[in-house]
Amino acid sequence: MARYTGPKHKLARREGINILEKESASLQRRINVPPGGIKGRRMTRRLSEYGQQLREKQKAKVIYGLLEKQFGNLVRTVGRKKGETGGLLMSLLETRLDNLVYRLGFAKTRMMARQIVGHRHVLVNGKKVNIPSYQVKINDVITLTPDFQKNPQVLALLENKDNPTVPFIKKSGTIGKLIRMPKREDIQVPFDLQLIIEYYSR
Predict the structure, then answer these.
(1) Which of 19, 102, 128, 151 has the fewest other C-beta atoms within 10 Å?
(2) CA atoms lying within 13 Å on the CB side of residue 72
(3) E strand intervals along the chain
(4) Distance between CA 9 and CA 27 in Å, rounded?
């Protein structure tokens, strides 16, 4: 299955979440109205248990920009490990290289972060890595290539002092480091991890 490349507003309305990862008053209003307008609202029915599980899985895929096969493989990977499956899944999603580039404020959105990684503008421990799904390890250092640090858009992002960081990473300028694995309480996510695990346990 190919990655969705259509209008992001349309996808956000379908999933009922803001996937643009930036404030948008017009989008927020539209999210509250299901596709089809008033008619769509009338026709909206209570989802079955399977339908709820499927919707939560779709939300997570959209937010992190994963294809079905990629997401399924992640869930199966955590299923073979010891520990709380939902928390483990959250850790793997959050320690993807593209996600950490986004969390460090080097990109406005995860989509932009994927492009930056894919175009070889990111270094991990001093070496170029162009795989967005690369799993970053504790104490790995992430930075941007010297040339890309001069990019006007990147410079503007780095000057934004209001960009919050998450507690499992440390940032200084264009240098970021994963200092520990993420915990559930570190991140507020608009999807239910337990329902996702149940979906793949069928």
Answers:
(1) 128
(2) 9
(3) 122-124, 127-128, 141-144, 169-172, 175-178
(4) 7
**Cβ–Cβ < 8 Å for 95, 140:** no
- Whether residues 130 and 172 share a domain: the answer is yes
Q: How many domains does the chain have?
A: 2
Contacts of 133 (CB under 8 A, 6+ apart): 70, 96, 97, 98
Q: Which domain, by its residues, includes 66?
A: 8-92+189-200
How do residues 50-93 score in pLDDT, each as one tens digit? 999 999 999 999 999 999 999 999 998 998 888 888 999 999 99
Between 16-25, 164-173, 179-188, 190-199, the lowest mean confidence (pLDDT) is in 16-25
Q: What's phi and psi for 45, nearest 5 deg?
A: -115, 160
Tokens of 92: 């793997």
Q: Could you give the 3-state DSSP secondary structure of residue 121? A: coil
